[in-house]
Specification:
single chain; 353 residues; alpha/beta; D-Maltodextrin-Binding Protein, domain 2; 2 domains; six-stranded mixed β-sheet; 44% helix; globular; disordered N terminus
């Protein structure tokens, strides 16, 4: 069969004309062979690439876990433990990358602008999703609408500690002492509108005591002044080394669940203030529009991680009570907590804006 559409010319004795049809036919076969190879390549390669990018094959390359806080802190350490487990479960590296700034705003905002393909995710705390919703007048993102919820990983409370010079051994005794000395006690925080600030104001309201708020540019300097006695009280999740060293006295924990580091220490709600609950959480979210298949694959991988004994030991040792929620439960928790924080903010003199 001749694939060339040109009619075969009549042969003549001329040598040049005898060889021309043979040469032309060979070129025709070569052209058609090349065309078929290119056609097959053009169809096959894009299909392979497309198949590799489908949610069913996720992940097929490294995934970035964007942390909106500085490296080295609690959320950084806990996120690395989770990232290592996700790597084992899903077969691709889950790499933690810090995009700190603006109290977490910069990293959270960044995720709202990335492609919803699951290769960049947000590992964050309620600082970016409930506290900022209450304290920021013009927040650049919607904590619910601009993200795809994946799972709460765990919750943790703050440790309420006091300078040892205060003659109170427990929360009940401290409340009695504070009521007898109105306005004479200072409590340190990491800044106006911080979780530490909310914890202190909720305590003042429920315990009916008067304490003076002293904001610092971080909990570290605040803790040093509590140790020195300049301030007498601080609510700080990282107080354990100072508690264990005897530099401050632990009298309660702010979460509704007991801190796994101090299982014998009653929560503030258990000890004296029924209903007191100021809980932080660590959770994973994606950008808006993340495919359902990827969302649920990541949700299942988080639950697998939290079922691993090694992960449990490490995260419990950091004070984290493990959760592993559904995406729907995560949204509900964010909404309920935001309303609770709005109510607390309304009691703060001068507001927190």
């Amino acid at each position: 069969m001749n694939f060339d559409s040109t009619p075969t010319p009549k042969l003549t004795p001329t040598p040049a004309r005898q060889s021309a049809p043979h040469l032309k036919g060979g070129q025709s076969w070569q052209r058609w062979g090349t065309f078929l190879v290119l056609l097959i390549a053009s169809l096959t390669v894009p299909c392979d690439l497309w198949a590799a990018d489908t949610p069913l094959n996720y992940p097929n390359r490294p995934v970035k876990l964007i942390l909106p806080y500085a490296a080295g802190g609690f959320s950084d350490q806990a996120s690395r433990v989770i990232g290592e487990s996700l790597t084992r479960t899903l077969g691709q590296p889950f790499i933690l990358e810090s995009k700190a700034g603006g109290g977490g705003r910069i990293g959270a905002e960044y995720i709202t602008k990335v492609a919803p393909d699951g290769y960049e995710l947000l590992m964050t705390t309620n600082g970016t999703h409930t506290y900022m919703a209450v304290t920021e007048k013009n927040l650049s993102y919607d904590p619910i609408k601009d993200f795809t919820p994946i799972s709460l990983i765990g919750t943790y409370g703050l440790l309420m500690v006091i300078n040892p010079s205060i003659p109170a051994q427990n929360l009940t005794e401290f409340i009695k002492y504070a009521r007898a000395h109105p306005g004479s006690l200072n409590y340190a925080t990491s800044g106006v509108g911080s979780g530490l600030h909310f914890a202190g104001e909720l305590f003042k309201s429920m315990a009916e005591v008067s304490m003076v708020h002293i904001p610092y540019k971080g909990s570290g300097p605040g803790m040093q002044d509590v140790i020195a006695g300049t301030c007498q009280v601080i609510f700080d999740g990282g107080a354990k080394p100072f508690v264990d060293a005897g530099k401050v006295r632990l009298i309660g924990t702010t979460s509704a669940k007991r801190d796994p580091r101090y299982p014998q220490m009653p929560t503030m709600g258990e000890a004296a203030l029924t209903g007191y609950d100021l809980t932080y959480w660590l959770g994973l979210l994606g950008p808006k529009g993340l495919p359902k298949e990827i969302q649920m694959k990541l949700n299942a991988a988080i639950k697998t991680a939290l079922a691993e004994r090694d992960v449990q030991v490490k995260l419990n040792g950091m004070g984290l009570n493990l959760v592993g929620s559904s995406p729907e439960a995560m949204v509900s928790d964010i909404q309920q907590e935001t309303e609770k924080l709005r109510a607390i903010a309304a009691t703060i003199p001068g507001g927190v804006q």
